[in-house]
Amino acid sequence: SLSDITGFAEITPTAPIAAERHGGRAKCLQRLIRLAMPVPPTVALDFDAVHALSKGDMPDLDAMLAFFGPDPLLSVRPSSEDPDWGGPGAILNIGMNDALHARLTESHGEPAANALYLRFIQSYAVHVARADPDEFEAGGAPTAEALAHALAAYEDETDEPFPQDVRDQLGEVLRSMARAWEGTTARLLREAKGAPADAGLGLVVQKMALGVGNGISGSGVIQFVSGQSGRPEIRGRYMCQAQGRDALTAKDGAGDILYLKQDPRGRSIETVLPEVWSDLMRYGDLARKRLREEMQIEFTVENEELFILDAVRVPRSPRANLRIAVALANDGIISQDEAVLRVPPHSLSELLHSQVDPAGKRDIVGSGIAASPGAATGKIVFTARAAQAMAAQDEPCVLVRRETTPEDIRGMHAAKAVLTERGGVTSHAAVIARGLGVPCVVGASDLTLDLKAGTLTTPDGRVFREGDRITIDGSHGKVIAGSARMLAPALGDNFRTLLAWADAARDIGVRANADTPEDARKAQMFEAEGIGLCRTEHMFFAEDRLLAMREMIFADDAVDRRSILDRIGPMLRRDFVELFGIMKGRPVTIRLFDLPLHEFLPQNREGLRELAEALDLPLSDVTRRAEALTEFNPMLGMRGVRLGLTVPEIYDTQARAIFEAVVEVAREGATVVPEIMIPLVSAKREVEIVKARVDAVAAAVRIERGVDFDYRLGVMVETPRAALRAGEIAPHSAFLSFGTNDLTQMTYGLSRDDAGRFMSQYVAQGVYDEDPFHVLDADGVGELLMLGAERGRRTNPGITLSICGEHGGNPESIAFCRDARFDYVSCSPFRVPVARLAAAHLAI
Ligand code: PEP
Ligand code: MG
């Protein structure tokens, strides 16, 4: 083709221009030309030509200049495949030299000629000749002196006169832009935005429309929606006697700015140039309908004639992006599936919570792991009790702890945000905060917490005390001094509409991890298909119940235990009745107690004394018993089914509470088939023993109440052995749910509560690509998932498979589970919308 010979191609409606070869800008310009918009003559250089250029191989510049005709004024703009990957800045007015300046002074007046030449000298000097930018500051008045100064400075800096030959100018501009793209900084920047290592750059050379000179001339930018909210509204700026994007960057009063549409404050394009205005309206509408996107249009008016120079996707916030996608689909411009694909799943989490406004001022004083998204400001408190006291006075507070334990839950509830010095993404603080929807930063180890002194000290020595105000940005893992400007959450009709479209497309289920009726209401609000994990021990984190749980753990004879279980049973039953009611017949998976004992033992003397009082025992007895229960490695100790087997009455009590709740809601006409899940299984026999007892309790309740009911019993696969032996476990299980928190912990031999201390080092050194507690380790832990699923299916083909660890809400893990043909994923309620959308993206 011609472009193979000359190294460039004219952009015409039919030229073979492709975004993958010429870049997004070139392709977009072709579309504008096809829509018959007045785009000045333009040629495109493809990726190969630009790459060759960087190696010194010039395109046929004579042919290019011949195309543009005598005395051309040109611009060169970058055209990367994805506009987000950036590129060198545009260079305008190539072709200006002394001779043309003289002629333009005649035809367009001296100020215009000066402005055109000055602008070119400034950008050529800085970007092409690499002269000292301080010598060529843009923005001054385009006087004859300024021009003379710039020409002299150029010669001074480069020891050469300013080039007068258009061919030389153009060649050097093209070469320098090609080289800039190959530079290390530019490459790292675009790779950070997802560009491949070999991403190419195209260049677009366009004949200038002069925004300066005769008659009404100027340039501007217009868009038809707000980039913040996505609502329809005309925005932009137009400045008389200006070029490029000057109108956007000019300070108020720096030039003659026209309002776009009629405005009582001054003159507008609409009144001064009504034809230009109506054309702009028409082009805006055309671009939306035919480019199927909200575009920002860059235009120039040359002596009252409109030219369209360029158009880019309107830069937008996540909430604007959502609204725009839904509006385009509602208007029949794109399909519903397309709208779903245009919203990145992760962007939703920004809409569910308040966010720190990235445009506002922030005084960042520390950072850690972004453990629970959203942001909040409050006064520092160092104890759960103080958090509750503050909340009682309606005073927003931030709970700052070394790490959290069940004793802090009430405080976490009361606080607007949580900050811990230790811990990783599956630490207690992180899991609970995500469940509560409270912004949280964990593992902020650069901050020094001195609980005795009541101080929080930053690396540079600033000291914060109780009552000082800070802001936690849980989306980005930042601690900010004082308050920060916030953006409010946006859960509106558009959100619901888009997710309904996502639901229609996806082919894997999404349930919520919900422990309490309050969580279940959130799950319901986010339209989860059921509860995939109810951690029943979490029902006992509430103040009035923690003690009951401790009494149960401490009871050391059957009689005492019976009496406390007789109190716990009805509490559980009430909760289950409420949960079933809220979930309206949707499946509810109830996990039998998994009590890491250390999470439930009192942490201090005061707690021990309270317990001694409640148990009516001497403090020394209680202390001794607490010591006896202390484990060297509680996460590998008497947890889960191990406690269930050693003290079988506990699971009996739970099973009875579940079945009695089923009977109770059955009386009101609702049919519930509860799913009972056994935690931390490592051997088939554990399942057989628990199953026999649960079956016996069910039989007893059926006879006592004279009501029949069904239930499903399943196993949580959290130990490597359970995954490996899934083949012999599956025949006893209606479902297998992979608890990837513990499975990751045990596969790596990495404590989920302590890994935060060195995880960032590990990731920084490339030992792990990512924190495996955050992103499912597809190679190792994933292989256990695949093995377990395959072996389980072989012996029980109808078995239901799911994942319920924290990974369940991550798009990568959802892809993994979908490929492995799992039935559903389960994640904390606030991540349910993200998971629904991510699942739809995979299915479309
Ligand atoms: C798990 O281990 O993945 C799990 C869901 O259980 P928990 O986080 O309660 O240990
Ligand atoms: Mg677990």
TrEMBL record:
* One Pfam family in the UniProt entry: PEP-utilizers_C
Record EC number: 2.7.9.1
The cofactor named in the record is: Mg(2+)
Q: Does the keyword Metal-binding apply?
A: yes
Keywords of the record, alphabetical order, are:
Kinase, Magnesium, Metal-binding, Pyruvate, Transferase
Cite the PEP-utilising enzyme C-terminal domain residue spans from the record.
493-842
- Taxonomy, superkingdom: Bacteria
Q: What is this protein called?
A: Pyruvate, phosphate dikinase
Specify the taxonomic lineage. Bacteria, Pseudomonadati, Pseudomonadota, Alphaproteobacteria, Rhodobacterales
Designated gene of the protein = ppdK
